[in-house]
C-alpha cells in the first residue's frame, strides 16, 4: 500500500511541475517545447516550385540565405527545405510544393520588436520579411509580407493542422 501511495504522490508532484504553453496546446514543462515552424513556398513566375530539385533553375539550400540584421552584422537564421507532404492518407490535406521551413523565424517575427529579416534566393536581391500576428496568439501568423507584398496564406483544410504556410511568387 505504501508503494502505491508513493507512486501516486510522485505523479501528483510531477503534474504540479507541468506548465502549459500560451498557445493552448497540451505540452508541458516535462515535454520538449518547440516553436511551430513557418513554411514558405517559393514559386517562379510560371508557378513552378523553385525549391524542387527537379525544377530547372531551382534554389538549392546552399544558394539561400535567411538572416536578420544585428547591428551591422548579418545573423543567419536556421532553416531547412522540406519535401511535399500530406496528412495521413488524405488526398485533399496536402502541400504539393517543397517548403522553406524555420521555427526560429517565427520566434523572431513574433517578438515585440522584430529585427529586419531578409531572404536572399540565389544572386537575387534580398527580400524583407515582415509579419503581423493573430491577436492573442503568439505563434499564429495573420499576414506575411515579402517586400511589403502579402504572401498568400494556405487556404485549404490543412491550415487547421499545419498553420503558417505561405506562398509567394518571384
Structure summary:
This protein is an alpha+beta fold and 170 residues long.
Count of separate structural domains: 1
What structural class do you assign from the helix and strand content? alpha+beta
Shape: globular
Low-confidence spans: 20-25
> Total number of helical segments?
2
Task: Name a few traits of the molecule.
five-stranded mixed sheet; 2 helices; 170 residues; globular; alpha+beta; six-stranded antiparallel sheet
Describe the model.
This protein is an alpha+beta fold. It has one domain. 14% of the residues lie in helices and 32% in strands. It is built from two helices and 13 strands. The chain has helices spanning 2-17, 103-109; strands spanning 38-43, 64-70, 73-76, 80-82, 85-86, 94-95, 99-102, 117-121, 127-133, 141-146, 149-150, 152-153, 165-169. A six-stranded antiparallel beta sheet has the order 3-2-8-9-10-11. Strand 2 (64-70) and strand 3 (73-76) form a beta hairpin. The longest helix has 16 residues, at 2-17. The chain starts with a helix and ends with a strand. The relative contact order is 0.18. Mean pLDDT is 84; it is low at 20-25.
What topology emerges from the helices and strands here?
Layout: H1 2-17, E1 38-43, E2 64-70, E3 73-76, E4 80-82, E5 85-86, E6 94-95, E7 99-102, H2 103-109, E8 117-121, E9 127-133, E10 141-146, E11 149-150, E12 152-153, E13 165-169
Parallel strand pairs: 1-13
Antiparallel strand pairs: 1-7, 2-3, 2-8, 4-7, 5-6, 8-9, 9-10, 10-11, 12-13
